[in-house]
């Protein structure tokens, strides 16, 4: 006989989903007796195709995920299909998402009622009701305390209802057990009954339909099917289930658990590493912020030192200029008053001391022109935020205070274009401005003046172009048009750099021959009468050039452009060719 544990709480417990005497704040001991949707004890628990159990009402309230229609073949449980055409009718299949695993599951056409009942969940529910110390109410009258339970009707009975249950003909054969005995063993053992024939136990198994049936089902609906006792087929079907579990699923389960443990361990390691790295980042940020703050204070202190230094320098320069102003103004006023108001004898008598004073003031080098005075107005002080500033407390920092000023005596000239040049060709050199320490300035903006003048021809000046490279260097370019010696003045802030003025030697441009080095124009031109030659030779017969043995021929090879008899030579200039005989020919000249 196939038996199952089977139990139900009373109606009040099913309605409230809690055990007798339990309050809302109490926690159930066994979570397998609680539905994960409504959070109460199971009420008619049904198994979804994903093997998760929920109350039938909870499944019916799930939102449909998809709805599809298909032809339903109306085949009764006996296995015979209806012969009427109306047997084929469209059926609607509703797909829902499992609240536990989020899988898509199809509900049978009849709804949650067509799902299999989870008897194990019912066992857990009734076990919870048995563990409580509170009294169970009678499910029939609802007044007296229940002391017994009918295994067939699955109801709790008080003493009066229990006697009436045994006296009635329909329920006289039902098995009734005391609740105290059920509490002692912790379970209720009863046969699994047929849903179509209440009171009939499922003792047979229909192999074509692959489901357990009772004797009446086997005699009526399954009379043409092969039905065997459940004890004869339980081993085969049980072994198949155990094989799927032990051979296929259990090893996979172990591998999944091992992989999950590795993932969890990796997550813990990752979390620990992230926290450690975050602590390192925070420590670095605190240290770096402290270093930046210290560097900021250092920059401000350096700026204050520069301010005091430059202020003192300006004060001293102002005092010197004020004294020079007073000295020169006093000398000028005294001299003007002497010349305008004094007599001849008075002027001559004070001439000596006046000239000595004026000469002294002149020799001191006081220049009233503003270009010669360059007060430090702080324009040389600048902040360079991206310039590396070394390390502070072990952290690299950037940003420096640039306070370099140009020292004219330390400036230098680079490039060969300052000493030598060529007539008509571009020459260039570079001026590098440096500070008092000899380091090149990292900025431009200095007032640079370059003048190139011929030493012999004062009116021969060369235009110059000065380009500020914004890095302390200045590119100077020029193009001399005449050869000779030039004087190059290079001034920064109206002061000559070291070595200025420089001497520039411009060479004469090499004049290449434009003609042919030939024996005579008659031979080189193939006898052309229009061919000319730079030598003084002539030919009769209307030829305009020279010829062998004729008058004026040099008697050796020469250039047709200028008549020079030296092959490796410069071509004679046009000014020389112009100073010729009336026929515009030079005499033979050896260069």
Keyword list:
591 residues, six-stranded mixed β-sheet, alpha+beta, four-stranded antiparallel β-sheet, disordered C terminus, Herpes Virus-1, single chain, disordered N terminus, Immunoglobulin-like
The residue ranges in which pLDDT falls below 50 over 5 or more consecutive positions are: 1-28, 74-87, 368-372, 581-591
What's the count of strands? 28
Termini gap: 143 Å
CATH architecture classification name of the domain at 404-507? Sandwich
Number of discrete helical segments: 11
Outline: elongated
User: What's the main sheet like?
Assistant: 6 strands, mixed
CATH topology of the domain at 404-507: Immunoglobulin-like
**Helix content bin:** 25-40%
Protein name: RING-type E3 ubiquitin transferase
Domain B box-type: 189-230
Filamin repeats: 403-506
GO cellular component, one term: nucleoplasm
């Amino acid at each position: 006989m196939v038996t199952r544990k089977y139990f139900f709480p009373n109606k009040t417990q099913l309605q409230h989903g809690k055990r007798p005497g339990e309050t809302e704040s109490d926690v159930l001991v066994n979570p397998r007796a609680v539905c994960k949707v409504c959070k109460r004890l199971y009420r008619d628990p049904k198994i979804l195709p994903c093997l998760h159990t929920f109350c039938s009402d909870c499944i019916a309230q799930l939102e449909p995920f998809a709805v599809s229609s298909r032809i339903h073949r109306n085949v009764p449980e006996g296995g015979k299909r209806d012969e009427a055409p109306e047997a084929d009718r469209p059926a609607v299949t509703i797909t829902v998402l499992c609240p536990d695993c989020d899988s898509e599951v199809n509900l049978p056409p009849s709804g949650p009622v067509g799902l299999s009942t989870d008897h194990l969940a019912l066992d857990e529910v009734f076990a919870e009701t048995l563990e409580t110390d509170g009294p169970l109410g009678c499910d029939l009258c609802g007044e007296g305390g229940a002391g017994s339970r009918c295994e067939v009707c699955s109801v709790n009975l008080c003493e009066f209802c229990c006697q009436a249950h045994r006296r009635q003909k329909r329920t006289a054969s039902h098995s009734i057990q005391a609740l105290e005995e059920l509490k002692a063993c912790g379970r209720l053992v009863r046969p699994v009954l047929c849903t179509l024939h209440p009171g009939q136990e499922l003792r047979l198994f229909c192999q074509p339909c692959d489901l357990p049936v009772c004797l009446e089902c086997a005699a009526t609906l399954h009379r043409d099917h092969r039905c065997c006792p459940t004890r004869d087929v339980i081993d085969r079907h049980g072994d198949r289930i155990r094989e799927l579990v032990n051979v296929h699923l259990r090893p996979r389960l172990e591998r999944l658990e091992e992989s999950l443990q590795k993932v969890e361990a990796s997550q813990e390691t990752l979390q620990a590493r992230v926290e450690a790295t975050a602590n390192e980042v925070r420590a670095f940020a605190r240290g770096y912020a402290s270093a930046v703050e210290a560097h900021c204070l250092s920059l401000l202190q350096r700026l204050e030192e520069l301010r005091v230094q430059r202020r003192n320098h300006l004060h001293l320069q102002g005092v010197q200029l004020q004294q020079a102003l007073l000295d020169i103004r006093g000398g000028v006023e005294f001299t003007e008053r002497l010349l305008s108001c004094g007599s001849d004898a008075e002027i001559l008598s004070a001439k000596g001391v006046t000239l000595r004073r004026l000469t002294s003031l002149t020799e001191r080098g006081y220049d009233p022109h503003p270009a010669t005075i360059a007060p430090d107005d702080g324009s040389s002080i600048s902040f360079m935020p991206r310039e590396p500033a070394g390390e502070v407390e072990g952290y690299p920092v950037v940003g420096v205070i640039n306070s370099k000023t140009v020292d004219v005596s330390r400036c230098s000239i680079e490039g060969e274009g300052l000493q030598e040049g060529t007539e008509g060709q571009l020459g260039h050199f570079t001026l590098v401005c440096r500070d008092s320490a000899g380091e090149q300035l990292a900025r431009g903006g200095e007032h640079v003046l370059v003048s190139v003048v011929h030493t012999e021809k004062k009116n021969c000046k060369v235009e110059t172009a000065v380009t500020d490279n914004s890095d302390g260097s200045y590119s100077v370019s020029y193009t001399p048009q005449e050869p000779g010696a030039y004087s190059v003045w290079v001034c920064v802030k109206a002061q000559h750099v070291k070595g200025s003025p420089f001497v520039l030697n411009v060479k004469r441009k090499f004049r290449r021959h434009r003609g042919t080095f030939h024996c005579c124009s008659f031979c080189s031109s193939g006898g052309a009468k229009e061919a000319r030659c730079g030598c003084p030779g002539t030919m009769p017969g209307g030829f305009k050039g020279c010829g062998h043995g004729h008058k004026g021929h040099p008697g050796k090879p020469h250039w047709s452009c200028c008549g020079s008899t030296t092959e490796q030579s410069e071509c004679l200039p046009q000014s020389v060719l112009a100073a010729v005989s009336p026929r515009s020919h030079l005499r033979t000249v050896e260069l």
